[in-house]
Specification:
Blueprint lengths: L1 H34 L1 E2 L21 E3 L5 E5 L6 E3 L12 E3 L4 E5 L12 E3 L4 E4 L13 E3 L4 E4 L13 E3 L4 E6 L17 E5 L12
Parallel strand pairs: 3-5, 4-6, 5-7, 6-8, 7-9, 8-10, 9-11, 10-12, 12-13
Antiparallel strand pairs: 1-4, 2-3
Length: 212
């Protein structure tokens, strides 16, 4: 009987610690992100790694369970690169990094953020291809990647994102053709302008990456 109550006691402790452990991992992920950034305006000054809970940090919003659900760093004059650690923010719904000087590739690990509703990375210096892993973001409604230096074709896997309402990749260096399936039937042509795209995909006639 004593061992039974001991087990219950240990279980209660683990359940109590679960939110703390989650916020610890999220805080570690955000601190790792901060270490990759140059921050001349000190907008990340409050991101103190000694605090268990990152919910007290500026530009970070949490839900009632102390999970990070929003990251607001738009127009913050930060530079550097994103790392895979962002994929640890499993509860993130809004990722707002627009209007900065962030460069390098967009991490494929962002495809792990399955609760994400909005991703705004426009107005930076991102390079490389749009990750195919974005096709796992089934809750995504807004994806704005315009005004970067992205290249390669638009991944056809994105046509499976049935909740996607806004998609903007204008002013990049994308090639190939524009998807015509799924949500892409409703996006205006302005969302694709100023690239090297060859117009809408001619299914069965030419490859979707024609011209890349």
């Amino acid at each position: 009987m004593a061992s039974f109550f001991s087990s219950l006691f240990l279980l209660s402790i683990l359940l109590t610690l679960t939110p703390i452990l989650c916020t610890n991992s999220e805080g570690n992920a955000l601190h790792a992100l901060r270490s990759k950034f140059s921050d001349p305006k000190n907008v990340l000054q409050s991101w103190d790694p000694t605090l268990v809970n990152p919910c007290t940090w500026f530009h970070v919003t949490c839900d009632s369970n102390s999970h990070v659900i929003r990251l607001d760093l738009g127009n913050s004059n930060i530079s550097g690169a994103l790392g895979s650690e962002l994929g640890e923010l499993k509860h993130l719904q809004y990722l707002e990094l627009y209007g900065n000087k962030i460069e390098g590739k967009i991490p494929k690990e962002l495809g792990n953020l399955k609760n994400l509703i909005s991703m705004d990375l426009y107005g930076n210096n991102f390079q490389g291809e749009i990750p195919k892993s974005f096709s796992k973001l089934k809750s995504l409604r807004f994806l704005r990647l315009n005004n970067n230096k992205l290249s390669g074709p638009i991944p056809r896997e994105l046509t499976t994102l049935s909740n996607l309402k806004v998609f903007d990749v204008s002013n990049n260096n994308l090639c190939g053709t524009i998807p015509v399936d799924g949500p892409f039937t409703s996006f205006p042509i302005e969302s694709f302008e100023n690239n090297r795209l060859n117009g809408p995909e001619l299914q069965g006639l030419v490859s979707y990456d024609f011209g890349c």
